[in-house]
Amino acid sequence: MKQPLLYTLPSVRYRRKVTVFALVVIATVAICIYLGFDPMMLFTEFHYVVDLAGNMLPPNFDQFRTDNHVWWAILETISMAFLGTIFGGSIAFVLAFLAASNTMPVMVIRQVVRFCLALVRVIPFLVIILVFVVAIGLGPFAGMLTLVWSTIGTFGQLFTQIIENIEPAPSEAIYSIGASRIQVIRYSILPEIFPSFIANLLYSFDINMRAALALGIFGGGGIGFELYMAMRVLRYKDALALICFTIVLITIIEKLSDHLRKKVLGAGALK
Amino acid sequence: MLPVLALAIPVEGAALVCGANIRGLNSGLIEGFSFMGHMFPPDWGAFPELLKPAVDTIIIAILGTFFGTIISLGFGLAAASNVAPRWLRRLTRGFIRIERALPEIIILLFLVAAFGLGPFGGVISLTIGCIGMLGKLFADAIEEIDPVSIEAIEALGASKIQVIVYGVLQPIIPAIISFALFRFELNIRLSVILGAIGAGGIGLELYRSFSLLDYNRGLSALIITLALVFITERFSEFLRSKVRLGGALQ
To answer: Do residues B222 and B206 lie in contact, with contact meaning Cβ atoms separated by under 8 Å?
Structure first.
């Protein structure tokens, strides 16, 4: 009486899945132990969070009435994000034409620009802000230049892809009646990509607002710096009020940017 | 011409607020280049001792992504209209929206205030940071599942949990892995930045070297950071291309 052992074994696919799953779990546990990270600490040490919340509540919204400095900081953050978007977006726009294969015939220039864009993208903004703070000094100017840099990195490549992905037929039609390369860009490519350029610029403003907050902590000035200082000197009630305000501000800007973007893209589709 | 003029006024105003001007930029660029001269050559002796912080940075990002993905799955299920009841969906979507407006670095500031410096705060803030992005992506992926396949499993008499495991989670596994890897690329960069604020790792070394004016060591840390970001990004891209292929083949 032999048992048909073959049928009781799980399938190969199932075994492979279980093996992968087990390996992932073992690796996670191993690196948790290596780092000394204990997820349970979140629950066993939770009273610290409760203490902190006790210190923070209620948020001190009075500072918005009494302290004009806060409003100036907010203005600085918005200006930083705005200028970073405008200048970074414009530079990325020009570079994208130099990097796209259908607008730039010289391969060497194309490769050089592409390499520069890749390099700009890979450097974390922590390094950029540290360099700009040394070169220009603390303050929103250094933060703004960092945002210009990071906007070029993110959107240069995106714009290049947008330019390369356009419908080739209209450009070819204009070429065929004897237009120069500049004329093709002006009358065929530019009108086609302009709506998506504006839409991406709005999106980039949204991203830069968040980045501007983080930059403040490293010396970029603005609301991020105020928040960092409030946390450092244990003015937790002020800090919580600033955070609530920041969340509202970012949500409003996100909504606004979404709304405008839909409008711009809708108009582009109608044309 | 009019739009350009209309744009010029806010640009000028914003430049005034930021204190941005051409002269400052010029002198800053000269200063910047001479500063880069100070950074060379990199401190070769520092490379061995910078390796452990680099590994820490990667590990913080991996753990943050791992726990973040698991938690985001819960949030994704609770925010999907075809799984969760209406009130729960509303509540979760609202929470996800608020979380997305909160940069990870600010979450870390709070965690540092509560738990003190160390990688623990870094992992937790990356975990929470995942919810805003992955939670929404997962919820949207779940809502796009063909209702027929869920109904088919329900018709066989499956319990609610069985429906969720086989009808909802099983089909989106390739999407989950692909989104998680995408988030991992982001987390590596964030992990470097969070390190400077208190999570430790290569970001802290970088920040400390620059603060102590030890620019040669700073350049070494910078080189390691660049290598780290570049290699993990390539690796994650490679894995993502494999997953997409596997998902298509199934």
So the answer is: yes
Residues present in chain B in total: 250
Confidence at residue B68, expressed as pLDDT on a 0 to 100 scale: 92
Determine how many CB atoms are found less than 10 A away from the CB of residue B163. Answer: 17
Nearest to A213 by CA among A221, A201, A203: A221
Query: In this structure, is residue B245 part of a structural domain?
Result: yes
Q: Where are the beta strands (DSSP E) in chain B?
A: none
Residue B164 contacts A, CB cutoff 8 Å: no
Q: Rounded to whole angstroms, what are the CA distances from A210 to A77, A185, B66, B106, B173?
A: 9, 34, 24, 10, 30
**Optimal mutation site among B105, B123, B243, interface A, most CBs of chain A within 10 A:** B105
Q: Give dist(CA B210, CA B193) in Å, integer.
A: 14
Pick the closest to residue B16 from A129, A140, A157 (CA basis).
Answer: A140
Query: Would residue B112 count as lying in a domain?
Result: yes
Closest CA–CA distance from residue A54 to any residue of chain B (Å)? 11
CB B201 within 8 A of CB B53: yes
Mutate to test the interface with B, among A16, A45, A79, A225 (most CBs of B within 10 A): A79
What does the domain layout of chain A look like in residue ranges?
Answer: 66-270
Question: What superfamily in CATH does domain A66-270 come from?
Answer: MetI-like (1.10.3720.10)
Asked whether the beta carbons of B169 and B14 are under 8 A apart, the reply is no
**CATH code, B237:** 1.10.3720.10
pLDDT tens digit sequence for A252-268:
888 888 888 888 777 65
Per-residue buried b or exposed e for A123-148, using 16+ beta carbons within 10 Å of the residue's own CB = bbbbbbbbbbbbbbeebbbbbbbbbb
A141–B196: do the CB atoms touch at under 8 Å? no
Identify which of A187, A158, A161, A193 has the alpha carbon closest to the alpha carbon of residue A174: A187
Q: What is the pLDDT of residues A2-42, one digit of tens each?
A: 555 555 667 777 788 788 888 988 988 888 888 777 777 77
Residue type, A238: D
Task: Answer whether residue B57 is part of any domain.
Answer: yes
Q: How many distinct structural domains can be found in chain B?
A: 1
Domain extent for B222: 49-249
Q: Give the C-alpha separation, B184 to B16, whole Å.
A: 38
Task: Compute CA distances B1 → A168, A236, B4, whole Å.
Answer: 29, 48, 5
Distance of CA B36 to the CA centre of its chain: 29
Distance from C-alpha of A64 to C-alpha of A248, rounded to nearest angstrom: 14
Beta-carbon separation of B24 and A136 below 8 A: yes
